[in-house]
Amino acid sequence: MRFRPAFFACAAFAVEATALAQAAQTAAPETSSAPVAPQPPVEDPTRAQARQRFQRGVELIRGGQWFEAIAELEAARDLRPTPPVYYNLALAQRAVGRYRGAAESLRAFLRTVSAAADPALVSQAEQLLQDSSTAVCRLEVTADPITARVRVDGREVNLAEGAVVLDPGEHVLTAVADGYANAERRVTLRRGSNSVASLVLVRTNELSFLRVESAVPEALVRIDGREIGHGTVDEIVRAGRHTVDVLGPHHHPFTREIQSFVGQRQTIRASLRDRRTVFDSPWFWVATGVVIAAGVTTAVVLWPAPPPIMGSLATVDTPQ
Question: Rounded CA gap, 302 and 10, in Å?
Fold first, then answer.
């Protein structure tokens, strides 16, 4: 019986431990084992803005609003350049005659397009690139004196670098040099042409002013062998002797030798005589009422603009 006190002590300790464990379990905070729902990813605002500009550009292409489409697609390109952005931008650039920009956009498209892209689309882009590259013009510009600073469409060019690459259409050339009067020339370049333009500046103490007028707007005016312009032109020349030639299509050429003096203003009126016979004149056929293929209109368009593309090439429209 002498072991009873120890027995009761052990039993009391066990009861106390059990009570403490229950109390601790009751006091512990409840934890949930339910999974936390994933948060939707936050879209990059730049990507969203690029998509918006891209889609707007495609809509403008479909509506034939080419300049507005270029602005939207250039903005999309600057935000997130992708193959469809480059391709559609090239279509809009070609539509307004910006073949240099179109060629750059098409090269970027072919450089970045996926290997899994539609082969027909890639082939179309390659043909458009070839056509755009052959459409650009090259203009060789010379200036006298050679120290003159020359600008083409407001952009200064380095004549030592060779011919200037330009789009077809009208361009404005200007030359400036200290002690000389400014020279300006307007040139119209045909698709794929290689042309030469000469800018001759005249010292301010040698100025003479010459105006050449022709009733034929497309007549080419030359002064001392240099092409000056078409139709009616104004030119600053050095005092002295000069040769004026005016060449009109289907007309006899006009040539005149002139003498100019410092400060003088003179006008040369070039009367061009038509060298066509009455049967060559279009007015003869209009007057006689001859109509060929009445009611039929045929239009030949080189490389009509393909429809724009919307996605599938890691575009801002369908991100991959």
Answer: 106
pLDDT range class, residue 153, cuts 50, 70, 90 = very high
Contact 162, 155 (CB under 8 A): no
Structure tokens at 69: 């489409």
17 assigned to some structural domain: no
User: Is 299 a domain residue?
Assistant: no
Whether 57 and 92 have beta carbons less than 8 Å apart is answered as: yes
In a domain, 26, yes or no: no
Residue 320 has pLDDT above 50, yes or no: no
| Partner residues linked to 152 by β-bridges | 155, 173
Within 10 A of 210 (CB to CB), how many other CB atoms are there?
20
- Consecutive H or E run containing 149: strand 149-152
Do 225 and 196 lie in one domain? The reply is no
Question: How many whole angstroms separate alpha carbon 109 and alpha carbon 86?
Answer: 5
Q: Is the pLDDT of residue 52 over 60?
A: yes
- State which residues form the domain around 215: 202-274
Residue pair 194/163 in contact by the 8 Å Cβ criterion: yes
Sequence-distant (≥ 6) Cβ neighbours of residue 66 within 8 angstroms: 60, 92, 95, 96
Per-residue pLDDT of 71-115, as tens digits, reads 999 999 999 999 999 999 999 999 999 999 999 999 999 999 988
Residue 275 pLDDT level (bands cut at 50, 70, 90): confident
For residues 185 and 206, is the Cβ–Cβ distance under 8 A?
no
Phi and psi, residue 134, nearest 5°: -80, -15
